[in-house]
Amino acid sequence: MTKKQALKYSLIYILTILFGAFIAFKVWWTNGDERFLGVIAFFLIGFGSLFLSISLTRIIIPTKADFSISTLSDKKKYQVLKELVGSTKLKAINSCYLSLFLILFAGTAYVVVTSLNKYEKDQLKTFGQLQKVKIIDIRHKGKGTSYAFFDFYINGKKYSNNLSRKNYNTGDSATIIFSTNDTDIVKWADDFDSNGE
Question: What pLDDT is attached to residue 196?
Answer without folding.
Answer: 54
